[in-house]
Write a structure and sequence with these properties.
With about 575 residues, this protein is mainly alpha-helical. It contains 19 helices and two strands. The radius of gyration is 59 Å and the shape is elongated.
């Protein structure tokens, strides 16, 4: 149902704790309204002043933070520039100061200090306030001290290394000078004192204590004395070396004394043997007579050493004589060639100094030159020298090939000379190349000849038999050379064996004429025909139908005509397949 709103009723009861007396105000005291307005305005003005003061403080704070930030950034940039310069100037792999070695490092502190001052001076110019400059001064001092410490450490290390190297070089040079002047004791002493003085001055600065310095002095002293003794022994001054050792023994390390004593013993033996050998050789006589004098020496070691020296001197003399003879004989051959085969152009002194064999060879060679007939190789001579080169190379190198010049044509003389030179010069590869094929063919041929009952190189062989075997060797050479030229391949051992078998089994028909022009019909009065092995052929066995052709060929070649040369050309023609 509707409620009728009632008016609020006001209670007449008093309020609890009510303040009965109010504070005095301008209005309560009767001040005017204007006066009251002035008070209100003052209050408002106070609030505005406080707000203004609060705005100024915040702005100042912002300004300070901006200045601080600018200062910080300026210092950061400055430090960055210093760091970049330091990294480049100190640590660059190629041009950095810490890569400067030895004596050159000594100038680094001043150089870097000047560069650092210049850099920091440029940086200071870019700073915009005293605050920044003051802050940078602290950075500059700190970074500068670190830089100087790093550089000084590097310089100190390099100075130590440089001083150590110089000390080592000084000591080594002094030692070398002392050893080089081993025959001058005074100079040895001066150089040794120089080395010791350098050690005592510089070693302590390098960190060596007194004991280490003395140890180094002792080592240098000992090694110098040992070097002087070795130098004296090398110069064959064994007596001086022993005297020096006795004087300095106490200054030589114990480990080195035994070595020095062995060297002195060897040096004494060497010196005594040299003096004794020189005495024996100077007295002259044959090598046999000199060996008899050596046997009279009681000391076994000394006797062996003296004998080696005497035999060595004999070998040197033999070689010198041989080389002199070869040079003399070569000069004589040159004269014969130049004078058209006239030996009379050889000076009498030279001619009288030649052996009988050398004179005979020269005359024979001169005759060929005078007649305009080239020298024809004597096959037994050529193959005999080739076999000697293969079986006795040391004996072959002592042969004077000019002794055989009249028996060797130009090609085969040069072949033997080249082979001899290879062996003399120790060029085994070249010598083997020349001898390998010859050895193989010789071994196969010699074995085959023995199967036929023929001993190659036998002492009882006649000149005809030696010539026949040499001719067989030449026929084998020609056949193998022809086969290799035809096939373009190197002949194998079976190829060589087959060629040998063919040559040894080959036969030639030989007609033996009867007597009385066939008047009688019984032997030996009628002509007979037989066959012989090629190796058994004699000059008279050359068929008549070929004999005239061979003589004509020899004359055309301006070669001498004889039974031997006719047989040689016949056999050569058969080897080449020109005659069946």
């Amino acid at each position: 149902m509707p409620v009728v709103r009632r008016e609020r009723e006001v209670s007449t009861a008093p309020l609890p704790g009510v303040r009965k007396t109010a504070a005095l105000t301008g209005l309560s005291e009767g001040a005017g309204v204007e006066s009251a307005k002035v008070g209100v305005g003052a209050s408002i003005a106070g609030v505005g002043s406080q707000a203004a003061r609060m705005g100024v403080s915040a702005f100042a704070k912002i300004q300070q933070e901006s200045r601080d930030r600018a200062d910080s950034v300026a210092i950061l940039e400055a430090e960055r520039r210093i760091a970049e310069w330091e990294n480049r100037r100190l640590y660059d792999p190629e041009k950095g100061a810490l890569n400067v070695r030895g004596k050159a490092a000594m100038a680094l502190p001043d150089e870097l200090a000047n560069e650092y001052a210049s850099l920091t001076g440029e940086i200071e110019k870019t700073l915009g306030s005293d605050r920044q400059r003051q802050a940078f001064a602290r950075v500059k001092t700190s970074r500068g001290m670190g830089l100087d410490l790093t550089v000084q450490r590097h310089v100190f290390g390099e100075m130590n290394r440089y001083e150590g190297e110089e000390l080592k070089a000084t000591v080594e040079n002094a030692q070398q000078a002392a050893i080089a002047n081993a025959l001058d004791p005074a100079r040895v002493g001066v150089e040794l004192d120089r080395a010791i003085g350098a050690i005592k001055t510089h070693a302590p600065r390098l960190g060596l204590g007194p004991e280490a310095v003395e140890k180094q002095v002792a080592a240098v002293t000992s090694s110098t004395h040992v070097g002087v003794i070795d130098r004296l022994l090398t110069n064959d001054k064994d007596k001086a070396a022993r005297a020096y050792f006795e004087e300095t023994r106490g200054q030589i390390n114990g480990e080195a004394i035994a070595k020095v004593e062995r060297a002195l013993d060897e040096g004494t033996l060497r010196g005594e043997s040299q003096r004794k050998a020189d005495e024996i050789v100077l007295e002259g006589g044959t090598l046999t007579a000199q060996r008899e004098k050596v046997r009279a020496i009681d000391d076994p070691k000394l006797r062996d050493a003296v004998q080696q020296r005497v035999e060595h001197e004999a070998a040197i003399k033999e070689r010198t004589d041989r080389e002199t003879e070869e040079a003399t004989l070569q000069g004589a051959y040159n004269i014969v060639d130049k004078n058209g085969g006239n030996v009379n152009g050889i000076p009498p002194a030279t001619w009288s100094g030649l052996s009988g064999g050398a004179r005979s060879a020269l005359r024979s060679y001169a005759e060929h030159i005078a007649r305009g007939v080239p020298v024809k190789t004597d096959l037994p001579t050529f193959y005999g020298l080739m076999q000697k080169a293969g079986t006795d190379p040391q004996g072959f190198v002592t042969e004077n090939l000019l002794q055989y010049r009249h028996k060797l044509d130009e090609v085969e003389f040069k072949q033997l000379s080249g082979l001899q030179l290879s062996i003399r010069s120790g060029n085994a590869k070249a010598a083997d190349k020349d001898l390998a094929g010859f050895r193989t063919k010789s071994e196969i041929l010699d074995d085959s000849l023995r199967q036929y009952g023929i001993e190659p190189g036998g002492k009882d062989q006649t000149p005809e038999e030696r010539n026949a075997i040499a001719q067989l060797r030449r026929m084998l050479d020609l056949r193998i050379d022809g086969q290799q030229e035809l096939t373009g391949k190197k002949a194998t051992n079976p190829d060589i064996q087959q060629a040998v078998d063919d040559l040894l089994s080959a036969r030639a028909e030989v007609k033996e004429e009867g007597t009385w022009s066939g008047f009688f019909t019984s032997a030996p009065f009628f002509d007979t025909t037989t066959t012989k092995r090629l190796i058994d052929l004699k000059p008279g066995d050359v068929p008549a139908q070929y004999r005239m052709q061979i003589v004509e060929a020899l004359n055309k070649a301006r070669r001498p005509v004889s039974d031997t040369t006719i047989l040689d050309m016949y056999l050569e023609a058969r080897a080449r397949g020109l005659i069946k």
